[in-house]
Amino acid sequence: MNKGINNYLVWIIVIFLEWFILTIGKSAHLWIFVIIPIIAALIYTEYNSKPAKKRRNLR
């Protein structure tokens, strides 16, 4: 799967999780549960979008 499409899918899942948490909880005290998926998605998309290291062939 393309990295760009993969990143969009991750963010769509995160937005759905945020909506689900906030509709079930209906409380402002759930901010920590809202922040955790956002941080996880940021880390995943940044790590996933790094270019592969090129290995030098020393012969």
TrEMBL record:
Keywords noted in UniProt: Membrane, Transmembrane, Transmembrane helix
Membrane-spanning parts: 7-24, 30-47
Keyword Membrane (UniProt): yes
Lineage: superkingdom: Bacteria
Protein name, per record: Uncharacterized protein
